[in-house]
Amino acid sequence: MATPARHTAHRTRAGFIPAQQRTRSSLATLLLCALAACASPGPDSQFSYTPPTAPAAPEGASGFTPKPGWQAQRFMVAAANPLATDAGYQVLKAGGSALDAAIAVQMVLGLVEPQSSGIGGGAFLMHWDGKHVQAFDGRETAPAAATPELFLRDGKPLPFLEAVIGGRSVGTPGALRMLEMAHREHGKLPWKDLFAPAIRLAEDGFLVSPRLATMLAAPEAKTLRNDPDMAAYFFNPDGSPRAAGTRLKNPELAKVLRDIAAKGSSAFYEGSVARDIVAKVRKHPTNPGLLSEADLAGYKPKQREALCTDYRVYRLCGMPPPSSGALAIAQMLAILDHTDIVKHPPVQADFGLEPSPQAVHLFSEAGRLAYADRNRYVADPDFVPLPGGSAASLLDPAYIKSRAALIGERSMGVARPGTPAGATLALADDRSPELPSTSHISVVDAQGRAVAMTTTIENGFGAQMMVRGFLLNNQLTDFSFLPAENGQPIANRVQPNKRPRSSMAPTLVFMRNSGALSMSVGSPGGSAIINYVGKTLVGTLDWGLDAQQAISLPNFGSRNGPTELEQGRSSAALADGLKARGHDVRVIVQTSGLQAIQRSAPEGKVMWFGGADPRREGVVMGD
Length: 623
Ligand code: GLU
Hints:
Elements: H1 26-35, E1 70-72, E2 76-79, H2 82-93, H3 98-112, E3 122-128, E4 133-138, E5 152-153, E6 156-157, H4 160-164, H5 175-186, H6 196-204, E7 206-207, H7 210-217, H8 228-234, E8 247-248, H9 251-263, H10 266-269, H11 272-282, H12 293-297, E9 302-304, E10 307-311, E11 314-318, H13 325-336, E12 347-349, E13 352-354, H14 357-377, H15 392-395, H16 397-404, E14 439-444, E15 450-456, E16 466-467, E17 470-471, E18 484-485, E19 488-489, E20 507-511, E21 517-522, H17 529-542, H18 547-552, E22 556-558, E23 563-566, H19 572-579, E24 585-588, E25 595-599, E26 608-612, E27 619-622
This protein binds glutamic acid (GLU).
């Protein structure tokens, strides 16, 4: 794989001061600590955080800001906000593990990109320790008191936003306990150290990024003001939204994080924070929820067997159900293996590389087939097992071959779900909508460990309720609102203590022959995550693009509806080529937030190449 000769990762972007150039003398650090209630950890600490002195956000919030890709020799971290990436970078530089860095990144993301993820939400984390892949499930759960009718009124599904805003949609958060579980196994630095960057930024303040400012100024943000805590934090006293570059402090969150740093996740799941969460959820004025203190105290993250499948010379490992991400991607790739998509690389368009009509045709048809099965069969496996009891039936080579045979020269329009072996339970399709927020973190450390973690509070700003400086998720709206259709149960219906089906697809890629890690990748984007990550995998593994080129490639695909092309980044020739193949083409906004780190030269000097999505604010750093 060719590695473009570009600047090294630690130099990051113009205007963002390289970590190496900062004053790091212990005297300076001591002075800073004395002056600014420094969050630096105790005497046994190996890690002392230095806040970046640069602007919080080096680029515009919307549109497409080309990114160069970054390279580094030993370690690398890619995340959706420069302050979060920098926190991970400093942890890695201090000798922290990939998992340590992911924790520091997550805590800063919850502060600076609060609309997307945080301790009030859930996450899936894939971990590679050099020998084993593990899948950590920190998905939210439905309250014990939830019923399949949670999102029905007079037998009809609630309008989406009515369900989202308020306590009804709040699931028991899982991200923090999952990170604690993973840290017990894979942490190198003390747990408490990893909160220092977020605490410091919360206390001293951080600059509102353009993307956050744009979201606050959007018409849809009107309802955020209904929550008094959000109104006070995200809006000025005159009601106007905080502008980009405004310094925002979050002392309440800093206090919560200090407690979690000192006492562990019980400081969140029990005691006064848990009580405040429950009170807020249950006392919502128009849409109260069912979450209880017992739900919080009883939350259990899970380790699941990673879903690993072979594709050409690669082995891909991702999150099994309750996420549909890895399974749908594995089906798509297995189906594409029956096609000649590899012979249809991207072509040059006005704005850069663009996939060819034939490639989009094949990819979209494979997507239709995979999404059809996903909507029918995938849910929390502890409640509704996959056909045959595992992913094997849906990935069986004969079954995949029969599905691939449905792809012709013209679009099939809408695919019907298949009948894999063991599909005895009669189920109806789930049509639950998902709107994009969420964030993805990829890390590799100097010892070759790696993380791919996708983390979410579901919709932008979650349930639109703030408690102690963090936002509560609305993850329960990832369940099907309808429990059944035409008398058939829907696999992804609400049930007490169940995890809603996800599309998140944190993915680790390995070389089949050597077992070496080849890539860590993932994206936000609701149900389109499957297409975004699938595109990046086809781009890198089939077409030989580097991670940045593959991420930057226009988004495309079908979720078993129309064939979707990315607005502003698709040519008329592409749309015409698809229409000629019978596709119903829609050109829509597709704001992925891909991050990827790939091994760039097996024996070369530069080891890692990272890419961040030009559609969001992410950057990559490393040494
Ligand atoms: N809640 C979605 C899921 O778990 C992710 C939302 C998003 O990416 O915007 O699949």
